[in-house]
Task: structure prediction
Amino acid sequence: LSFFGPWWSIAVVSFVACYQLATSGKMAFGWSAFSGIFIWSGFSLLRHIQAEAPITQKMAGLFQSSISALQGVPSLGVVLLFVVLVSGIVGGFSGLAGYQVKQLFK
Result:
């Protein structure tokens, strides 16, 4: 996270952790995706609560103006939806990659 590193640091941590600990591809993807979602959702909520400027509303406006289905969704919900999607995919696939590299060198 931005407290400890760039946004993609969760991918490096997931890769290394699953290289060391995962016993199956399903476990590697699932736990890494869950961890990424948990950490980034919490971080996003913390930033939303601490923010003095309505950054969440501005970010959600980018998506709500181009996707009509998101017009009635609250801005925090829109931002969390995209945080969950991106962090789950990044974390999950990097964990799966760590497990697959371990299998490659077995």
Notes: Helices lie at 9-21, 25-50, 55-66, 75-104.
